[in-house]
Design brief:
The structure is a single chain. This protein has 123 residues and is of the alpha/beta class. The chain is 47% helix and 16% strand. The chain has a single domain, classed as P-loop containing nucleotide triphosphate hydrolases (Rossmann fold), CATH 3.40.50.300. α1 crosses α6. The protein starts with 7 loop residues before the first strand and ends with a helix.
Length: 123
């Protein structure tokens, strides 16, 4: 069984949910990763238009966790606005992971398991 590493994997989610870390880990394994900054866009399906991913992975984190991970200068209202902007991507994601209580390695393991499953289904 081979996993199709030619597929473009899009990563979306709120700030400090783990997109950059996960992207680096997956790139190191040979995957094509598109970090899509949907949380900063007013275009609801920007993830689809610009990123054009074959698979979309949504990483989520609570406001409290985001603030612990990174010293962000934002309010709960700012966080809620990011969540609103991400609704379309969340609804269309192939995989959604709540990262609050997971290490970077645990998130990576969940994604690799998912990618292996997808590889089995498409290969």
């Amino acid at each position: 069984m081979t996993i199709n590493k030619e597929l473009v994997v899009g990563l979306v989610g709120v700030c400090a949910s783990g997109k950059t870390t996960l992207g680096a880990k997956l790139r190191a394994r040979g995957y094509k990763i598109k970090h899509i900054a949907q949380e900063h866009s007013f275009v609801k399906d920007m993830w689809k238009k610009i990123g054009k991913p074959d698979l979309l992975i949504f990483l989520d984190a609570s406001y409290e966790t985001s603030m612990q991970r990174r010293r962000l200068d934002w309010t709960p209202a700012d966080y809620n606005e990011q969540q609103r902007r991400l609704e379309h991507a969340r609804e269309h994601a192939d995989l959604h992971i709540q990262t609050d209580r997971l290490s970077a390695e645990e998130v990576e393991a969940q994604v690799l398991k998912f990618l292996k499953k997808v590889g089995n289904e498409t290969g």
